[in-house]
Amino acid sequence: MRDLTISTEELNEIYLMFENKDKVEIENIINELYKEICHELLLDNAELQRYIEKNLNSLADIIINAVKQNTLDKVFITQKFIEY
Q: Residue 17: what are its φ and ψ, rounded to 5°?
C-alpha cells in the first residue's frame, strides 16, 4: 500500500519544484508527473484518464496561485491534518 501522507518537508520540496516557474513549465511538470503516476499505479481506465487530463490545466492554475500566496498546504494536505 502506498502512503499518500505529505510531510511538511515534502510540502517544501513541492513548493521548490514549482517556485519561479511560469504556467507552461508548471503544466509540463504536472503532465510528466501524471504520466509517472499512471504508469506506477497501472492506471488503464480510459474514462478516468480523460477526466484527469481535462483537469490538469486547472490544477496548474491552482498550484500557481498557491505558490504565489504561499498556501500549498491548502492544495496538498499535510500530515498534521490527517487523523489516524
A: -65, -35
Angle at 9 between CA 7 and CA 11, to 5 degrees: 70
Contacts (Cβ under 8 Å, ≥6 apart) of 82: 5
Q: What is the DSSP letter of 78?
A: B
Rg (CA), the chain: 14
Q: Which residues pair with 78 in a beta bridge?
A: 6
* Residue 80 grid cell: 498534521
What's the pLDDT tens digit per position in 20-76? 999 999 999 999 999 998 888 888 889 988 999 999 989 999 999 999 999 998 888
